[in-house]
Amino acid sequence: MARPPHRPPTLRGKIFHGPSVVAAGLLTQTQLRGKAWRRLLRGVYADAELPVTHELRCHAVAAHLLPEGGAIAGRSAAALLRVGLVGFAEPVEILVPTCARPRMSDVIAHVSAVEASDRCRIQGMPVTTPLRTCWDLAQWLPAEEAVVLLDRFLRSSLVTKAELASLGTARRGGYGSARFAHVLSLVDGRAESPQESRLRVMIVLSGLPAPQVQWEVYDAAGFVARVDLAYPEVRVAIEYDGLWHASADQLHHDRRRLNRLQAAGWLVIHVTASRLRDSPDAVLREITGALALRRR
C-alpha cells in the first residue's frame, strides 16, 4: 500500500511560498512536488484539496506577490466583487505603483498611482474599489467588453450612473478621460445579461439609433411583454434568446408571447448567441431592414 503523502498540519488548507516552506524544513523539494500540493503560481503552492478557482489564485497573488500599495484589479477585481466571471487559469490582474511590477506569465500588472481611497478589502485582500475598477476596465478592455461589465456594476448597485459621471468629470482632460467618456456614453445598467449588453453596443457602434432597453409593451388588454431592446416609435423589438429559451415550457411561453406582440403590431427580431458571435453583420442588416420597412 502506498504511503499517504507528507502533509504537515500547518500547511493543510493553506496557500504558501514553496521555497520558504522548504527552507524552514516543513517539506523537502520532492515532497513539494508530490500530489499533496498544487502549484498555483511561480513559487506559490496550495493544498491540493482546495478547489482551484480564480479567487484562490487571487489569494495567492495578494499574499505572496503583490507589491506594497498594490491591489487586485481589473477583471479579477470584478470577479471578486461578484460582477464578472474569470476562468481559473486566466492571469490575475493587479494594479501596482510605478517601478513595482512583478514579471510573470500568471499575472498582468498595470502600473499606475494607487491611492488609499482606490482600495478596499475583500476576504482580506486589497482590491480596487468598484468605482476605480470601472475606471480601469474602461481603460484596459475593448469598449464593448468594458460596457458589459460596467452594466453589471450598475445593475448590482455597486456604483451609480451619477458616481460614474462624477468620476468622469473629476478626471476630465486627463489621461484616459476621453476613453472613459466614450465607454460611459454606451453604459446602461438595465441589461439583464452580458449578451444583451454586447448586442446593444454592437447596434449603437454600427451607427444605428440607440434602442430602448427593457421596453414594456401594452395592448388594449394590458401588459404584453418586456422586450430586451426596442424602437417603440416603429414597433420593432430585438430579443436575445439564451439557452434557457430552448426548453419545451419556455418555447410554449415564448410562442404565446410572440403571438401577442405580433397582434399588437410589433415586428420581432430574434438573436441567438451563435448569430451574435458568427453573423453580426447579418443581424445588423436585419435590424436595418426592419427599421427601413417600418419607416416607409
Automatic annotation (TrEMBL):
Organism, scientific name:
Luedemannella flava
InterPro entries xref list: DUF559, Restrct_endonuc-II-like
Start and end residues of each DUF559 domain? 227-291
Q: Which Gene3D superfamilies match?
A: VSR Endonuclease
What start-end ranges are recorded for coiled-coil regions in this protein? Answer: none
From the Swiss-Prot or TrEMBL record, give the protein name: DUF559 domain-containing protein
**Signal sequence region:** none
